[in-house]
Specification:
homodimer, 161 residues, alpha+beta, six-stranded antiparallel sheet
Amino acid sequence: MEKQVVHAIQDEYPDDFAWCYGCGRLNQEGHHFRTGWQGNKTITMYTPDEKHTAIPGFVYGGIIASLIDCHGTGSASLALHRKNGHEAGDGIAPPRFVTASLQVDFIKPTPQGTPLTAIGTLQEIHPKKWKVQTEVYAGGTLCARGEVVAVVMPSTFRASS
Amino acid sequence: MEKQVVHAIQDEYPDDFAWCYGCGRLNQEGHHFRTGWQGNKTITMYTPDEKHTAIPGFVYGGIIASLIDCHGTGSASLALHRKNGHEAGDGIAPPRFVTASLQVDFIKPTPQGTPLTAIGTLQEIHPKKWKVQTEVYAGGTLCARGEVVAVVMPSTFRASS
């Protein structure tokens, strides 16, 4: 398994769309989730901070949900980008997705201090809509399963103020 | 509508269980979600920070998921505590729940700078398991719907290290 994502799709988002608290490279206080291909699946690696506690010793579920969320939109972006003939790293701005729905099943308490790996499986359900099923591992242990439905960012998703 | 939750269930959690990044009163870097009754529904109010951005002007979905998550476990705790003859504020430690599953439908982009209100509707589905359906409003606008299945904290949810 890779130890680092080399060509992450989030590195390619236009600056205006790179402020996400989860995965925006320009949000200095965010998580900086980075998502790339691993074969025909997608991967995001992240080690939660000590403050991201549920009960001492275990990771807060909202962080796992956040990881699955941004892993989902990043995976969808990778997939549509590839379908359009591009790859992260080739200098072409990829499509930007937003989350329509997010589902998380918490299977086991997730230990703190262990790198988490999200692995995504993609399914196109419409030219502008992808389903991403994700498994989150802590070391070799499956701790959570998630599903994101991601849609190409609609024009309504613009700041009105 | 109340402007502040007076008797929040999170104020009553034992110290060992008050470190949650979402709702733990002792986690100085967390969100400090606080959940109380409003009639026969539950309420949590929260204004996301400026850094909690999705696209500039809109709130990050992972924060909304986090709000729904802790609102869900807090609501379940309120409900079982009441069923056991107690109320937040009466000095009795309430039961502590964990999240088995979390579902979020993002209905509209959630504007930043607006206080969010999560309103929960409770359903007991087992003596140790509750379903909490939540609507998240920004001002008067419904922005997200969520559902949490919360279970009484199992004994496996203890730090092994």
